[in-house]
Amino acid sequence: MGRASKREEIAEAAFRQFHAKGFNATGINEITKAAGVPKGSFYNHFSSKEESALEALGRYRDSLRFEMLSSQDRPPLERLRAHFEFLGEDLLRNGFARGCLVGNLGAEVADHSEVIRAAAKRGFDGWAARLREVLTEAQEAGDLDASIDVESTALFILSAWEGTLIAARIDKSAAPMDAFFRTVFGGVLR
Amino acid sequence: MGRASKREEIAEAAFRQFHAKGFNATGINEITKAAGVPKGSFYNHFSSKEESALEALGRYRDSLRFEMLSSQDRPPLERLRAHFEFLGEDLLRNGFARGCLVGNLGAEVADHSEVIRAAAKRGFDGWAARLREVLTEAQEAGDLDASIDVESTALFILSAWEGTLIAARIDKSAAPMDAFFRTVFGGVLR
Lengths: 190, 190
What we know:
The structure is a homodimer. Chain A is mostly helical. Helix content of chain A is 73%, strand content 0%.
């Protein structure tokens, strides 16, 4: 296995381990074991576990299919719903486990690692900006009350989604997701 | 220090450590050190770190002043707002750190510890039931649209609050909390 593919194997294994087990429960040993590479090779590619977590956040972001939000194939609020339905399917496929890597690392290590907190903040800021764009489009199309503050509402919907994933993992049921769709699309975005 | 007070010191130190650092980053060593007791004494009082986390969840719940929700001194929706403002002050006092112990343990260990997941679920279920009661009172008083599904809405508000705390810790700002109050009290509960 060449250097480039080894790095890829390690980065992908780190992403999967952090998503499944969290930051502190994941050891570098387990990452290299899952990647099928010698333990020492981790430090040929990453300076620290923290650095591999930053790359994991990037990989997670790339899995979120944000292009669904901006494609012009459907009305804005339908795209917004499809976006969260797509993310929700992931939770169902994982048996109500894992949730959102950004929220998970935020809850577990944002208070203790400034670099991870800053990366999570960039992730949330970019995500909220994309949600805001969809809400703005919906207002322009006349599908959303013009009096709604799109910046505050985008931020709120993102927070609500993050909490919904945690509640669904704790409840091991789709009830919190059902409540999210009902209240956001039947109430907040009337 | 007698047995009873030693147990109290250990339980309180465990609560504070879990709240500040999370489950996996907290060692029994650190709990006993913070409690000022010999390391071995932990197991005289708790069978495992998990068991001390269950007690920590109970201590956290007792700090939430749920009686604010049921006292009849103010209209129901004012009590609901005061409840979340009280919880939000805690985050501000801690410099946007710590957040909610139930959500934190849920995000970090619900996928891996069935006993902690079950305890977190009991915590959320009880909390959602209290929120639901306040919403029902508000409907009965004519302060809340009778068409709102109070069960689903209570669950949603709790999820949204949990995500709001994580977003505020990641953002190290009150913006997510401002968005919560604006959308919940200016939108969801119109």
